[in-house]
Amino acid sequence: xxxxxxxxxxxxxxxxxxxxxxxxxxxxxxxxxxxxxxxxxxxxxxxxxxxxxxxxxxxxxxxxxxxxxxxxxxxxxxxxxxxxxxxxxxxxxxxxxxxxxxxxxxxxxxxxxxxxxxxxxxxxxxxxxxxxxxxxxxxxxxxxxxxxxxxxxxxxxxxxxxxxxxxxxxxxxxxxxxxxxxxxxxxxxxxxxxxxxxxxxxxxxxxxxxxx
Length: 212
Ligand SMILES: [Zn+2]
Ligand SMILES: [Zn+2]
Known about the structure:
Layout: E1 9-11, E2 19-20, E3 34-37, H1 39-50, H2 55-61, H3 66-86, E4 89-92, E5 97-99, E6 103-106, E7 112-114, E8 132-134, H4 135-144, E9 165-167, E10 174-176, E11 196-197, H5 201-209
Parallel strand pairs: 1-5, 3-4
Antiparallel strand pairs: 2-4, 6-7, 6-8, 9-10, 9-11
Helix pairs in contact: 1-3, 2-3
This protein binds zinc ion (2 copies).
C-alpha cells in the first residue's frame, strides 16, 4: 500500500518572526547546529500554549486529526526544549503547510505583504522588484531545497532592546514598538505590508533597495 499523501496543515498567517538566537554568544550558527522548527510546529505551540486551546480545538484549526496534532505538538516541544537546553538557534521554516493565498514575499528585499487573492503577484510595493512569489511557494521552495539559498527572510538581525519603533517599509508609517508584539505581526494599515523594526538590519537593507 502506498502511503497516503500528507495533507497540508492550514495556517491563518505566517509566523511573524523567522527564528530565535540565544542571548549569549556561546552558540554555533552553523546550519547543522540550528534547530529547524517547521511552520506547523510553531503553529501548534501558538495554538496550544499561547492561545491555550485544547488539543481538539487546535487540531480543528489546523485541519488535522487530533492524533496528528499531538504528534506535531510533541515534536515542536522537543525541539524548543533542545534549543533552550543546548543553547541552539531556532529557525522557523519549511514544513507541510498552506497559507491563505493572499500572502506574498519579495525575494529582492524580503518584504512580506498581503494582496487580494486571485490577483497577480506583480511588482513589490516596496522596492519595485518583480521577483515576488506567493509565500506558499517560498515555503515549498524551502522544503525542496537545502536550507539557506533563496530565502528572503531570516537573514537579518532584528532591532535591539524593548524600545523603538515599528515602521512600514513603504510609507514609513511608524508605531511605537510594544514589548512582546513583534513588528512583523503588524500590517501597515495603508499598505498591507508587514512592519519591521526601525533599527533592524532588515530595514536598512530595504532602504537601500527601495525605489526612490
Ligand atoms: Zn521588494
Ligand atoms: Zn505603509
